[in-house]
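Provenance and format

Records in this collection were gathered into a single text stream. Each protein contributes a sequence line and a C-alpha cell line. The two records reproduced below are adjacent in the stream.
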Amino acid sequence: MKTIGLKQKVKGYIDLIRPFTLLAPIIVSTCIMIASFFYNKSGYELNSIWLTIIIPASFSLAILNSASNALNQITDIKSDKISKPYRPITRGDVTTFEAKIISIILYIIAFSLSILINYIFMVFVLLIILFTVTYSITPRMKDILFFNQLWVGIPRGLLGILASWSVFGSPIETLPLIIGIIATSFLIGGSITKDIIDIEADKKNGTKTLVNIYGVRKAALMALPFMVFPFTFIPILIDIGVLQSYLWWLTLLAIPSLLISYLMIKNDKKTKVLENTSSWTLMYVTYFIFASSFSILTILGSVAG
C-alpha cells in the first residue's frame, strides 16, 4: 500500500477542491452583492456587513463549488486516469472515501452558511446543490449532450447571480434577471472549453460533449453565438429601456468572447500553470471582468442617480 506523508496528503486535499475555480464564485458573487447593495440603496452601512453578510454569502457559494469539484472527481475517476492522471484521487493521494467525506462536509458547510443570510438565498443554494449533484451522479447530466452545458451554465450563471443579488434585493427584478441570463448564455457556450483536453477520455467513457461529437472547430462555431450575442444585444436592451445606459460598456466583452473561440480553433493548448486550456482560462477571466465591470458600473450609476 502506498504511504502518503502529511504534506502530500494536505496537498491532495487542496488539489481536490481546485482552488483556482473558487475565484469565480467568490469574485462574481461579491461583485453582484455589492452592486445589489448600492442599486437597492440598502439601509446597512457597507463597512458593517462584510463579516456578517457578504463574506459568509460569498464563501457559501465558493465552498459549494469546492464540494462540487470533489464530487465530480469521485465520479470521473475513469476519465481522469486517461486525461488528468495528476489529480489527487487518480494519483493515489486521496482515497475515494476521503473525497466523499470531504464533499459531504463541504456541502453541509455551504448550506449552513446560506441559512445565516436569508431564506431566498438559502433556496437558491439548494437549487445549485441539486444541479451540481445531478451533474455528477446518475442520471449524470454531464454525460448527456447539450444538458451538460445547461447544467454548468444555469447554476453558475443565472442561479448564482440571482442568489447573490437576493442578499440585498429582489431576485425577480429585471436587472438581475437579464444579467443572469447573459451570464448563463455566456457560460453555456464557454463551458465547452473545459472539454477539449477530455475528448478521448469522454469518448471512451460515454460522455457526449460538443467537442467530441462535432470536433473542436465546429463546436467552437456552435458555441460562439451563445458567448457573443448576449453582449451585442445590450445596446438594444438599453434602447428599449430594459437596461440602464451606463451598462453599454459590457458590450465590449464580445471581443474576448470572439477570442475564446479563436483560441479553441487555433490548436488550443493546456497552460503550464493551470490544468486546462488557454481558452478555458480566458473564459474564466472574461467572466470575472463581466461581474466586476457590472458591479462598478452599477455602483457609479446608482451613486450618480
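Adjacent record:
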Amino acid sequence: MLKQFKDLTEREILALAISSEEEDGRIYGEFADALRESYPATAHMFEGMREEEAVHRDRLLAMFRDRFGDRIPLIRRENVKGFIRRNPTWLVRPLGVNVARRQAEVMEMEAQRFYQKAIARTADASTRELLNRLADEERKHTQTAGDLEEKHLTLSAKAAEDASHQRLFLLQVVQPGLLGLMDGSISTLAPLFAAAFATHNSWDAFRVGLAASIGAGISMGFSESQSDDGSLTGRGSPWLRGAITGLMTMAGGLGHTLPFLIGNFHIATLVAIVVVGFELAAIAYIRHRYMDTPFLQATFQVVVGGFLVFLAGYLIGSS
C-alpha cells in the first residue's frame, strides 16, 4: 500500500526530500555522462545541477539531524502516492538532448511542487524556511532546463511549440491516451479473433469484441485514475486522465470490432484486419511523435506485439 502524502509526518517528509535529492542528483549525473561527447556545454550544465542537488541533500541532512537525530527512515518516492513513475530513460544510449531536457523539466516541476506541498505540512519555522529556499532553487532549475531547449532545438522547432503547454499536454493527454489506445488495440485482438475463428459468425465476434472493449476501458480508466492524484506531478485531474485512458482503450478495441457488424464473415474479418493495421500504424506514429521513440523501432515493437496477440487469438479460435 502506498502512503498518502497528507499522512506523512515532518520526519518522513524530510527523509523523503533527502532520498529524492539523492536520486535526482544521480540522474543528472547520468545525463551529464550520456551527453558529454556530443553536447559538452549541456553536460556541464547537468553536472552543475547534480552538484546543486548534492548541496540540497546536505542541507536537508543537517536539518534532519538537528531535529530528529541520525536515524533516517527509509522512504522513497515510489512509497508515496502522487509521484510520477519514472522510466529509466537516462540509462538509454545515445540519449537525445531533447529527451534529457523534457525529463529534467518534469523532475524539477515535481520537486518544486513537492516542496510547496511540504511547506504546508511543516510547522517548524526553520524547516519551512529551508523548504522555501529549496523550492525557489528548484524553480531556477526549471528555467535552466528551458534555456537548454532554446540553445539546442532549432528555431523552427522552437517556434512550432510552446514548451510549457507541450509538457502539460504530454503529461495530461498524450501519455494516458496512448496508454489506453495501446491496451485497447492490442489486448482485445486475442478474444475478438478467437471468437471470430471459433464461431465464423460476425455477430458473435462483435459481441465478444464489444464486451472486451468496454471491460478493458472500465478497468484501464479506474487503474489510471487511482495511480496518481496529480498533486505533485502536474498531470492534472486523475479522473480526467482516467476518462481519457478509459475512452481511448474502448476506442482502440471498438475500431476492429465494428467491422463485424458486416454480415459476411470473410469480408468483416478482412476489414477488421485492415483496421488493425491502421491502428498499429497510428500507435507507432504517436510514440515516435510524442515519446521520442525512433519510428522504425516503434513500428517494429507495436507490429510484433500486435501480431503475436492476433496469432494467439487465431490459434485458440481455430483449435
